[in-house]
Prior knowledge:
Elements: E1 2-3, E2 8-9, H1 13-36, H2 43-56, E3 60-61, E4 73-77, E5 80-82, E6 96-105, E7 108-117, H3 123-141, H4 149-163, E8 167-168, E9 174-176, E10 183-187, E11 204-207, E12 210-212, E13 218-220, E14 227-229, E15 235-237, E16 240-245, E17 248-251, E18 258-260
Antiparallel strand pairs: 1-2, 3-6, 4-6, 5-14, 6-7, 8-12, 9-10, 9-11, 11-16, 12-15, 13-14, 16-17, 17-18
Helix pairs in contact: 1-2, 3-4
Amino acid sequence: MFFQRQRIEIKTPGEIDAMRAAGLVVARALAEVSQIAANGVTTAELDECAADIIAEAGALPSFLGYHGFPAHICTSINSEVVHGIPGPSVLRDGDVVSVDCGAIVDGWHGDAAVTIAIGTVDPAIERLSEVTEGALWAGLAAARPDGRLSDIGHAVQTHVEAAGDFGIVEDYVGHGIGSSMHMDPPVPNYGRPGRGPRLVAGMALAVEPMVTLGAPMVHTLDDDWTVVTDDGSVAAHWEHTVAITDSGAWVLTALEDIRLP
């Protein structure tokens, strides 16, 4: 059923359970990809790995064919922020690659992303990824029943700004998720608290901060997919799908059963 006034899909407990099944497929795929990502490995090999995990689970990939996207995952290296297309690009020591993955089980979606360090990376880049992941968890912790949607973005922004001089990408945001991958409401990674729709049990959201070492401005390359920073600075991207329940937030795309009060 739907929360009609704001077009936000409200799921039943059984539908949230189906999303958890999809989230576990995504979690396993990202874990396997993280294991094989190393110096000399191509992003096409990462895609093949994720494709195998999704197929073995009897799930479907959310990304393959989505508006024409040609792969099972997105692989974004260094200054690439999101939507990088897997292919012949070879990972090298010192790189970071953000891997975004989605899967469908019984018509319900899960969506998550991680940033993976290849070998030894510059400490500033390592710190960038840590801050971005920390901002993700700050946002997830703000996804409380009876809170407001903007509480999530405010928590993300507060965490990033407290950590140092980083850029928060504003052109790309999180989203509602469920029977489709991208749904209302959009979930910005910035803003004042206490605004927007009230968070209620049955909502599911993809929270995904994208943070840069430099300015936050971005543009899309000629492939019409890959988004890169304007100034060439390195970016990090972390994401989880979270369900709002009566008792708090349930992180659906973690391998562990994580529930936040």
